[in-house]
Amino acid sequence: MAAHQEKKPSGERKQKNTQNDTQTPQVQWGRAWEVDWFSLASILFLLMFAPLIVYYFIMSCDQYQCSLIDPLIDLLTGNKHLSDIWNKTPTLTYRAAGIYTLWVAFQVFLYVFVPDFCHKFLPGYVGGVQEGAVTPAGVVNKYEINGLQAWIITHALWFANAYYFHWFSPTIIFDNWIPLLWCANVLGYAVSTFAMIKSYFFPTNAKDCKFTGNFFYDYMMGIEFNPRIGKWFDFKLFFNGRPGIVAWTLINLSYAAKQQELYGQVTNSMILVNVLQGIYVLDFFWNEAWYLKTIDICHDHFGWYLGWGDCVWLPYLYTLQGLYLVYHPVQLCTSNAIGILMLGLIGYYVFRMTNHQKDLFRRTNGNCKIWGKKPEYIECSYMSVDGTKYYSKLMTSGFWGWARHFNYTGDLMGSLAYCMACGFEHILPYFYIVYMTILLTHRCIRDEHRCFSKYGKDWKRYTAAVPYRLIPGIF
Ligand code: NDP
């Protein structure tokens, strides 16, 4: 359904704004046009240090058995120099470059050339051509949703190889982990730089580009909203899902295979991490059409933050628990294993149900039941840059009545479960929960700032009705 139609599938309605509407003073929403000093300082910090942080974590596992403190002690006491650590670091190899090129090329092939067939036989699965949300310029993009299919094909080939064909070792990812890191960085920087150049010379939709005039901010946060090559190759959907999230479960499988090779068994903690993160990944692909309505796709522009983040940060740092367990094979007692499994499953349930409630509410325009009752909501309106006025609704019942981002709370419970599966000997596997807490709290604030610019007074009415962000009664 195109943007110019009267009634949108999300339940949003639109009308050309002919009078000066005092209810909706806000006309600018989406990524910022101006850069404040704090954002600029954070961006410079991340541009300089994020690649070093990834290297430090991976090197600590490779050279220091996952201790984050020992490398520092060695350096501070003069026991080792930076050059000693660097000289011990595996370099880029032709083999890793070959593996990585094949991997990315295969994912591009699956994304661009294999139309979705899963939606034809999987009841309830939404795949094939789907529409995204209205962009600030009033555009509605179409996407080919075929991530679940790509995930299934890739994993079927992985298992076929591991148990039948034996073309390569299932430990191949672990065995080439640092050489592959260099390849992922090359792709991450290449795609972010390409996206920046593209936005100046051949943007996909010039009206949805934002230039702040600050090179670093534009490089990091992106200029183009939805860069594409041709009609279907969408940078955001591809890079987040394919080299990022399809890889996540494969990387974990490779770690499990390495445990098997080294110790002759796979520990229950490794199984827990594989299963809980596997559920999260599968959920992502099962709900890929829903992902089109999330902040990543609806509001973030494509820059280094998404490009490099999807290629390097996500596959390397989201999988630290499995990597840690290769070096420290933790066998949990049954009660701890069950407790962690329950925490992970409850977190997943909260995360999924909260997201589902919003999706159902928006799809049916509020004509649905949430916890057996008609949902409560606040009517709101906003305008796109061409002055068209849209109407929408913000739900105030179900999990959305408990807190404004209860989906993040569920996500955090799940994240804590992955970390706890690794025991309490080292802090490295706890990086994920620390990072997710910062990411999601920052995201809350960012999203609320954006929603306020979008909905104005209506957003204030909503925050008065649902006063807490993540934890009812506390924050
Ligand atoms: P949400 O799915 O919470 O979407 C926020 C948007 O929903 C708002 O911008 C607003 O958009 C709309 N909205 C807000 N409140 C309401 C309401 N009460 N009723 C109806 N619509 C509302 O945020 P994200 O896109 O950030 O997250 C999606 C999921 O992805 C989350 O569960 C999160 O935990 C997960 N996530 C995971 C990450 C990871 O790295 N593992 C990273 C980021 C997210 P509109 O303009 O349409 O009104």
Structure summary:
The protein has 475 residues and is mainly alpha-helical. Helix content is 59%, strand content 8%.
Q: What can you tell me about this protein's structure?
A:
There is one protein chain. This protein is mainly alpha-helical and 475 residues long. The chain folds into two domains: 90-309, no CATH class; 332-474, no CATH class. The protein is 59% helix and 8% strand. The protein contains 20 helices and seven strands. Strand 4 and strand 5 (233-234) form a beta hairpin. The longest helix is centred in the C-terminal third of the chain and has 30 residues, at 334-363. Residues 1-12 and 15-27 have low confidence and may be disordered. The protein binds NADPH dihydro-nicotinamide-adenine-dinucleotide phosphate. NADPH dihydro-nicotinamide-adenine-dinucleotide phosphate (NDP) is lined by residues 294-295, 351, 355, 358, 362, 392, 394-395, 400, 405, 407-408, 411, 443, 447, 451, 454.
Task: Kindly list the characteristics that best describe this protein.
single chain, 475 residues, mainly alpha, 2 domains, three-stranded antiparallel β-sheet, two-stranded antiparallel ribbon, 59% helix, globular, disordered N terminus, binds NADPH dihydro-nicotinamide-adenine-dinucleotide phosphate
